[in-house]
Each structure stands twice: as structure tokens, then as C-alpha cells.
Amino acid sequence: MIGIYSGSFDPIHEGHIEIINKALKVFNEVWVVVSKNINKDCQTSLDDRVKMIEKQLINFKNIKVMKNEDKLTADFARENNINFLIRGLRNSDDLKYEIMLADGNKSVYPEIETVFFISDLPVRQLSSSIIREINAYKTKK
After folding, report:
1. Domain that holds residue 125
2. Carries keyword Cytoplasm (predicted)?
3. Less packed terminus of the chain by CB within 10 Å, N or C?
4. What mean pLDDT is predicted for residues 67-77?
């Protein structure tokens, strides 16, 4: 059984890694699909993000890092005959958004199911946006 964990991952961080570890306890294989999100202004190119993630996940077994430049995640899943999407939750705001996203994916690909994993407390508070901001200030010094 394969699950897709899709995101812009700009950058990938410990919260994402934690979700991958949890997903590997359920799925035989996890595809980390690095996607271009038209609603986000990513600081790093898609190809560079893929390379960085491949390096960070090099010691993981049963992981495949893939690039998705121009497809909805549900379409990407359907084209690859995968019926499960992996999503991480940090709080109730995430849950509300993720339910809407799951409904949207279902409208595109009715066979898709979304599996949620809850981040553990130590990494729950940091989003990629916050990490980018911290890194930007560190590089200015």
C-alpha cells in the first residue's frame, strides 16, 4: 500500500519528517511529492527542493521523492493508481483547512482517501513559513 505525502516543503522540516515516520508505520511505501503550489511564493526552486529533500531522506527506506510541477495532487494520485493521501495536522485550524482540501481532492478523484497524522507537541508549532522567516533573519547577521 502506497501513500502520497504532497506539499511544497519550502523547506521540509522536523514536523514533516515526523509525519513521514508515522506514515511509514502504516504504509509499505511513502511517496514524498514535492509540488508547485500556485498559491505560495516559494523561496526555493522546485528542483532545488527535490534535491534537498532527497538528501534529507537518503537514509529512509520505502521512500520515493517525486516532483509534481503542474498537476493537482488528486490527479497525480489517480495517474499513479494511488488511493491514499497523507496529511499532517498541528491544530484545529489545520483540521478545518484539511477537511476542505480532502473534500476538494474527493471531488476530483472519488476513490482517494485522506489519512491524517497529528504532529507531536515538540514540533507542532513550527510551520515552514516560520522556519523560512527565522532562516532569513539568521542569514542577515
Report:
1. 2-140
2. yes
3. C
4. 95
Question: Of 36, 51, 90, 132, which residue is the catalytic one?
Answer: 90
Residue 36: predicted pLDDT = 85
Q: List the grid coordinates of 85.
A: 493521501
Catalytic residue, chosen from 6, 35, 119, 128, is 128
Domain count, the chain: 1
The CATH code of the domain that includes 26 is 3.40.50.620
Confidence of residue 60 (pLDDT cuts 50, 70, 90): very high
Q: What is the C-alpha separation between 51 and 74, in angstroms, rounded?
A: 23
The DSSP line for 39-87 is: TS--SS-HHHHHHHHHHHTTT-SSEEEEEESSS-HHHHHHHTT--EEEE
Q: Catalytic annotation on 40?
A: yes
Cα(128)–Cα(141) distance, integer angstroms: 21
Give catalytic status of residue 16 as yes or no.
Answer: yes
